[in-house]
Design brief:
The chain has about 230 residues and is α/β, with parallel strands linked by helices. It folds into 2 domains: about 1-15 and about 65-105 and about 150-228, 3-Layer(aba) Sandwich (Rossmann fold); about 25-60 and about 110-145, SIR2/SIRT2 'Small Domain'. About 35% of the residues lie in helices and about 20% in strands. It is built from 10 helices and 9 strands. The protein has a 6-stranded parallel sheet, with helices on both faces. Strands 5-4-6 form a 3-stranded antiparallel sheet. Helix 6 runs parallel beside helix 10. It starts with a strand and ends with a helix. The mean pLDDT is about 95. Bound molecules: ligand BJW. Ligand BJW binds near residues 19, 173, 176, 177 and 197. Ligand BJW binds near residues 13, 150, 176, 178 and 215.
Length: about 230
């Protein structure tokens, strides 16, 4: 039985990275319209670069936690496929040992040319003066999926959802689409569904099973149960 695991900011919370919508979260400190839309980047690229430069520096110092490591162990020891679809832009899954990780909302470590589409590894600090290595034009941006933009690898995700027997959602509030709709998609295609979260998400009642608690406790326990 293949397993697809959708993760959100909650799995990295105990590594010290803030969530978005919890009390005191990123959206309490910054207006979404100022930092997480293509229009915001056009209006004030310095502000947007500053927001992502600070998050890139913060994420680089964070360490994977027991939940990230438990998912890597599951992928290694499970006899079928375990694929992580993450909304997170940090690289804690990879540094925790996971191999099959799909970043549907992009990555802090990526830079993207808004003009020609060229991608490369982002420097620690990006700025409006940076020129694209391919077309030589300014306007290079963090490789992040902002509101109104199409998340990455949607065809691949649809394929994974169609092939899985279990869909698990970890540490996401279920407020942002299309990720919030994956549980219904997976159910329609015949998968069992499980939510692991600190608190029930917006679509919590759509899951067949739910366990509530901190990720660093819930995930290692759940993985041990599956592998035993
Ligand atoms: C713990 C824990 C612990 C805490 N242990 N758990 C109206 C209806 C439907 C859709 C729309 C609509 N209007 C607009 C839309 C579309 C829009 C959308 O969904 N908007 C909603 C807000 C309504 N979506 C989009 O625009 C997306 N694109 C799209 O739909 O394309 C299709 C299309 C495009 C164009 C035209 C037409 C169609 C793109 C979405 C991009 C999201 N980008 C962000 C920011 C960029 C990345 C970044 O900077 O990091 O992605 S927004 C932000 O939210 C970020 C996250 O990935 C995403 C999800 O947040 P997440 O991970 O769920 O975090 P929180 O904070 O919300 O929740 C934390 C959870 O953790 C909580 O549940 C806690 O309980 C839990 N927790 N501690 C376990 N210790």
């Amino acid at each position: 039985m293949n397993i697809v695991i959708l993760t959100g900011a909650g799995i990295s919370a105990e590594s010290g990275l803030g969530t978005f919508r919890d009390e005191g979260g990123l959206w309490a400190q910054h207006d979404i319209q100022d930092v997480a839309t293509p229009e915001a980047f056009q209006r004030n690229p310095d502000l947007v670069h500053g927001f992502y430069n600070a998050r890139r520096a913060h994420a680089a110092k964070a360490q994977p936690n027991a939940a990230h490591r438990a998912l890597a162990k599951l992928e290694k020891d499970w006899r079928h496929n375990v694929d992580i679809v993450t909304q997170n832009v940090d690289d804690l899954h990879e540094r925790g040992g996971s191999k099959s990780v799909l970043h549907m909302h992009g990555e802090l470590s990526g830079a993207l040319c808004a003009r020609c589409g060229k991608r490369w590894k982002a420097p620690a600090v990006m700025s409006t003066g940076d020129l694209c290595a391919q077309c030589g034009q300014p306007g290079t941006r963090p490789d992040i999926v902002w509101f109104g933009e199409m998340p990455y690898q949607m065809d691949r995700i649809a394929h994974l959802l169609a092939q899985c027997g279990l869909f698990v959602s970890i540490g996401t509030s279920g407020n942002v689409y299309p990720a919030a709709g994956f549980v219904q998609q997976a159910r329609m295609l015949g998968a069992r569904t499980l939510e692991l979260n600190l608190e029930s998400s917006a679509g919590g009642s759509l899951f067949e099973q739910r366990r509530l608690g901190p990720a660093t406790e819930l995930i290692p326990t759940w993985v041990d149960e599956l592998l035993s």
